[in-house]
Amino acid sequence: MAGGTASLYARGRETQRGATRDPAWTRRLLIGLGLTFFALFLLAPLALVFTEALRKGWSAYFSALAEPDALSAVRLTLLAAAIAVPVNLVFGIAASWLIAKHRFRGRTLLTTLIDLPFSVSPVIAGLVYVLVFSAQGWLGPWLLDNGYKVIFAVPGIVLATVFVTFPFIARELIPLMESQGTEEEEAAVVLGASGWTTFLKVTLPNVKWGLLYGVILCNARAMGEFGAVSVVSGHIRGLTNTMPLHVEILYNEYQFSAAFAVASLLALLALVTLALKTFVEWRVASARSEGA
After folding, report:
1. Which residues have CB under 8 Å from 76's CB, separation 6+?
2. SS3 156
3. Is the pLDDT of residue 94 over 70?
4. DSSP SS3 for 17
5. pLDDT of 238-258, one tens digit each?
6. Confidence (pLDDT) at 292
7. CA torsion, ordered 192, 93, 277, 48, to nearest 10 deg
8. Plot region of 254 (φ>0 → left; ψ -120 to 50 → alpha; else → beta)
9. What is the average per-residue pLDDT within 132-157?
10. What distances in angstroms separate CA 247 from CA 74, 126, 153, 161, 228, one per listed residue?
């Protein structure tokens, strides 16, 4: 009886494998379609950016990047990212720790609010900042009277960047912390560790790779943001133009080589981000295999 059951189970497993095993031509077709899509919609546009950027030679390429307005755009982009990423890092760690490790009234609402920038158009977010902080806005007159300018200035660009990158770190950490549970933290507290020591010695090391992954995505989004920043910047050359905005202005002025030169910097940043993302994913997979 046991032997017959085992035989039926084995035949069932074999039938299941056969049902899910695709013919060779199907696999080749799917692989071909995937490679074609990758070549046409990803690889070709990326190659075109660098081709157009270098069309007039290396000297024109570096001249376009060394132009004062381009350097100002690069500095402003890096400044906005350098402020937005640490702000969201602190918020992301605090919010994910609160949501994943504690149960409290309003927890679901907080989780929903974290996802708000994913559902709201960046342009709408920029318009909200204009409504609040512009000269005719709710707080704008008071801020201007006290010497603070937000809209059409660096603070507005930073605020818009913080908003659009708001969820990235928290959204990476929340499911990771929830999957780990609270057993290790509870054990540390029982052994006499303080809350801060438990966080630094137990919680944070357990999520370090997920945290780095979220920071990489947050930084990439911050440097590539266009919609919200475009609304609040005013497009003032040399002052409030980030790299994406500078590319748009150069392209609209038919300075194609210069536009693609600056765009190539953004493409290089994207490639570096992709390489870092791949490395982090590999380290996470290695850590999981070692733990198993």
Report:
1. 154, 157, 240, 241, 242
2. helix
3. yes
4. helix
5. 889 999 999 999 999 999 989
6. 58
7. -170
8. left
9. 90
10. 11, 19, 19, 18, 16
User: How far apart, in whole angstroms, are the C-alpha atoms of residue 28 and residue 103?
Assistant: 50
Q: Give me the amino acid identity at 66.
A: A
The 8-class DSSP code of residue 134 comes to: S
Q: How many Å apart are CA 51 and CA 15, to the nearest integer?
A: 52
184 exposure class (CB count in 10 Å sphere: 0-12, 13-18, 19+): middle
Amino acid at position 61, single letter? Y
Element at 200 (helix H, strand E): none
Give the Cα separation of 74 and 61 in Å (integer).
15
Does residue 192 come out as left (phi exceeding 0), alpha (psi in the -120 to 50 range) or beta? Answer: left
Strands (E), 37-99: none
Report pTM.
Answer: 0.81
C-alpha to C-alpha distance for 19 and 197, rounded to whole angstroms: 53
Which string of b and e fits 217-248 if b means at least 16 CB within 10 Å? bbbbbbbbbbebbbbbbeeeeeebbbbbbbbb
Residue type, 170: A
Of 81, 121, 113, the residue nearest 217 (C-alpha): 81
- Which helix (H) or strand (E) covers residue 257, if one does? helix 256-291
CA angle at 86 for the pair 139 and 154, rounded to the nearest 5°? 40
Q: What is the pLDDT of residues 6-27, one digit of tens each?
A: 554 555 555 555 545 667 888 8
